[in-house]
Amino acid sequence: MQAQAHHRDLYTVEQVRALDRRAIHDLGISGFELMSRAATAAFAALCRHWPQARRIVVFCGPGNNGGDGYLLASLAHGSGMLVDVIELSDASRGDAAAARDTWQRSADNTHHWHQEGSLPHADVYVDALYGTGLNRAPESAAALIEQINASGVPVLALDVPSGLNADTGDCPGAAINAQLTVSFIAAKRGLYTGHAATKVGALQIDTLGLPDILWQGMPTDATLLEAMHLPPRTRDAHKGDSGHVLAIGGDHGTAGAIRLCGEAALRSGAGLVSVATRGDNLIALNSARPELMAHAVHGPQELQPLLERATVLGVGPGLGQGAWGHALWLTALDSGKPLVLDADGLNLLARETRSFTVPAVLTPHPGEAARLLDTTTAAIQRDRFAAARALAQRYHAVVVLKGAGSLIAHPDGRLDVCTWGNPGMGSGGMGDLLTGIVAALMAQGCSAWDAARMGVGLHARAGDLAARLGERGLLASDLLEPLRTLGNGLEHV
């Protein structure tokens, strides 16, 4: 795979099309030449990934993605492989038609797809049905896509798995499940979030040998998150230098949630962590983690002195939405302290909307995001980028939209995408950890933006370290030791 100078830069489909047009009109590289380079890059990836492959089937659509497929088929045939092409139609135009002619001149082993027919056996299937232009369900090819997925044959997708929206990561209908995707020119943002996690497989980006001047003046839409941690502490550091986190929550029966939040704050380096919670949680918290300074709080008056001593608040884990939780929530938000809101802290915010004037981080999952934007979870997932940015702008806060490919959005439009994490993290308590991590980083002097980005990365990477023993059965508390390791820059995932 070609080295990628822009390896962290993500673009919309329209931006990639603009880069494609620049290459053609400004650099004088023909569309057919770009198609040939794409086919060469993809065929090389196929040979590296499946070195024993001797027979392939290439599925071609009528557009330029199909053109890439026809040229890859020609290269594979020329190398001695057995190659079949199955096409949706013979209505290719422009460069795609020229690519089809190239294939037919080299080997006329082309079949039209019929829904009632079976697929030929192969070592590898190549998906060149639809490219980045598809933003709807692939109705005419849905049955074919389902057949390919059910075949058990590994799939190489060219540019984007057909049926996956390369802008949003949404799949409005059937979509290819690829084992490897080779994407061309630049990284499309939709390949890193949402349903993309189950469709893309291993992802390789090839810039097709285009010079760096092509990207000059083209802003990125988003950026891949990079691994970060705080610098080592000075030798004369003391607990007062690392901030004081106040974790607020833990209604009756939810002591575990607020404990996880507080302990994550400790493991992320906060100098002091206090917990404002129900009185019946104190024995459990003090015996399980004596470093947490747990306080029984019955209402706003008892919360006030704790707020005065705090640097940053973590509000929401186990808070509940009853009278007790609402009173503490309202008092915390009115305190003017920087804060992190999660869980019921977000559900209460959806009921009583406000825009923040202090540094604030909101960490919703898609369901909570839907309530905050007064829409549906499905609408959030259809365009996670738009949802995260809308939340950040509406509440004037940094927003972490959790899920596969978590997004971190700033009110000014900046957005980072996290590529770490695993399905084992879909279990109770993971969000409570994130609240404590981000609050601790803010308490140690990070801006809300930097704390959210660093915190999401540390949280996800700790999850990946913990999952080395298996994803199923992963507990939130399993992340605490790896979190400490990563927070000190001792190991990178």
From TrEMBL:
GO annotation terms (biological process): metabolite repair; nicotinamide nucleotide metabolic process
Catalytic activity reported: (6R)-NADHX = (6S)-NADHX; (6S)-NADPHX + ADP = AMP + phosphate + NADPH + H(+); (6S)-NADHX + ADP = AMP + phosphate + NADH + H(+); (6R)-NADPHX = (6S)-NADPHX
EC number per UniProt: 4.2.1.136, 5.1.99.6
PROSITE patterns: YJEF_C_3, YJEF_N
Signal peptide residues on this chain, from the entry's feature table: none
UniProt keyword annotations, A-Z: ATP-binding, Isomerase, Lyase, Metal-binding, Multifunctional enzyme, NAD, NADP, Nucleotide-binding, Potassium
Any one Pfam family match given in the protein's UniProt record, by short name: YjeF_N
The record's free-text note on cofactor binding: Binds 1 potassium ion per subunit.
Residues the record lists as binding AMP: K402, G403, A404, G405, S406, G431
Positions of the YjeF C-terminal domain: 222-490
Biological role: Catalyzes the epimerization of the S- and R-forms of NAD(P)HX, a damaged form of NAD(P)H that is a result of enzymatic or heat-dependent hydration. This is a prerequisite for the S-specific NAD(P)H-hydrate dehydratase to allow the repair of both epimers of NAD(P)HX. Catalyzes the dehydration of the S-form of NAD(P)HX at the expense of ADP, which is converted to AMP. Together with NAD(P)HX epimerase, which catalyzes the epimerization of the S- and R-forms, the enzyme allows the repair of both epimers of NAD(P)HX, a damaged form of NAD(P)H that is a result of enzymatic or heat-dependent hydration.
Family the entry assigns: Belongs to the NnrE/AIBP family. In the N-terminal section; belongs to the NnrE/AIBP family.
Alphabetized NCBIfam families for the sequence: yjeF_cterm, yjeF_nterm
Subunit structure of this chain's protein: Homotetramer.
Protein name from the UniProt record: Bifunctional NAD(P)H-hydrate repair enzyme
Native organism: Dyella psychrodurans
